[in-house]
Amino acid sequence: MAGRACPWAQDEALQQVLMSDWSVSFTSLYNLLRARLCPYFYVCAAQFSVLFRAAGLAGSAVPTAAIVPTTRGLREAMRSEGIEFSLPLLEESRTRKQKNPESLETETASGLGEGSTVEDAGEPAPSDDDDDGSFSWLEEMGVQDKVKKPDTISIQLRKEKQEVQVDHRPESLVLVRGSNTFTLLNFLISCRSLVAVAGPQAGLPPTLLAPVAFRGGTLQTLKARTVSGRARVQGGFEDVFSLELLGPVLPHTLHALTLLLGPAQRGSFRALLSPHEPSAAFNTCPAPPQECVPQDLPPCGLHPKTLEQLSQCPTLGKSSLRLLEMKDYCYTWKA
């Protein structure tokens, strides 16, 4: 293996061994999730990421899995395997457009930049009024025989165009609930697009990230760096200290840091956050509004206050925190 940057890239036997071991680890994590001994975990693949949540997390009474970004091909493959799912962000934008189309169109047009178009900037939420091929409104007007109706192929092409418009965007987030998460597990294990075919990750299974130990997992630490300096304030200068953390900062880690820094900094600190943009859509609530209620969770090895926070219904939608500041033990934040 010496002198070869990616020895597994061209070794199919080695790739099969790696994938076999990875499947065992993946299944181990899912079983811990179903037993509510793991609150959540991530599957970070080359083309998309998956967030599995245990029942009781984010206000959902059943296990959930969110996938983003997705493509029409991936969604069709999931449908063919019998996996039931929804597109909550797309459905939300369609509902909002139907309720107030004029204000949404004005908002979209005002947010255009140079060289942009309304189609580029707007929500990909075309109307579905005629998706079923119904033209009863023509009959009501008495002109059904005088107007040329689009054929079945044209209707199907329009549907496909609407679905392709959301590919690779936050609106393409796919939500799987309940027992369908187990079907998704088997689908992902056998999914060919799960493994990259080129680049530094070629031939390697996806990365699994979890807040608890699991079979085949290794304990990793974040990279930390401290910086000190002096800042000008009214009446002179004061010492300023900062702590920089690099790596996959998981949700429970961020909350644990706030619990540490609050009393340690006497109720005053500021945190600048750099989120992984494709994962921002995971802040979408996985439960329907009528079912979104906080649930009790077992300890899972996490701080009770952290579990209480994770059980709350998300409110950020497809945005994420950028700034978190505490003054006199009171929080303010910006998304």
TrEMBL record:
It is found in: Nucleus. Residues 92-136 are annotated as: Disordered. Its main location: nucleus. The keyword Lipid metabolism does not apply. Residues 92-102 have a biased composition (Basic and acidic residues). InterPro entries: Donson (IPR024861). GO terms for cellular component: nucleus. Keywords: Developmental protein, Nucleus. Residues 120-133 have a biased composition (Acidic residues). Belongs to the DONSON family. This is DNA replication fork stabilization factor DONSON.
